[in-house]
Amino acid sequence: MAWLHVANPIHARLTCGSANKGRGGITPGLWKAKNRGNLIARLARFLLRRDGAIVRTHYAIAIEQGTAREVVSRQLRGFEQRGWLTLRRGRIELLHRAVLQALHDESVTKSLIRETG
């Protein structure tokens, strides 16, 4: 199994290290993502925290959000089809920050209701 850690650094990040003890081998970033709202809210929050054009690949965003690149790409394409942002290779430009803010706020409100209700 040692060869797997060398051949697959992502697997090594998920299963090794003292930072992962008590979390079943999940990295701190993935632990946070799993325990914090849905992807739409997390993605909206990620986009809103940046000013101007966001220069980042879908893969890098997926790693930060604790999900797969395909999932991030699908969600971002949906946002683009609705006219909320534009996608270019390695670049995202927000067109309607207010809509993303509303998505984030609505999701946070629903999350709080679930936790207290």
From TrEMBL:
Domain of life per record: Bacteria
Gene3D superfamilies: Winged helix-like DNA-binding domain superfamily/Winged helix DNA-binding domain
GO molecular function: DNA binding
GO BP of this protein: regulation of DNA-templated transcription
Coiled coil: none
Database matches in InterPro entries: HTH_CRP (IPR012318), WH-like_DNA-bd_sf (IPR036388), WH_DNA-bd_sf (IPR036390)
Listed name of the protein: Winged helix-turn-helix domain-containing protein
Species this chain originates from: Paraburkholderia antibiotica
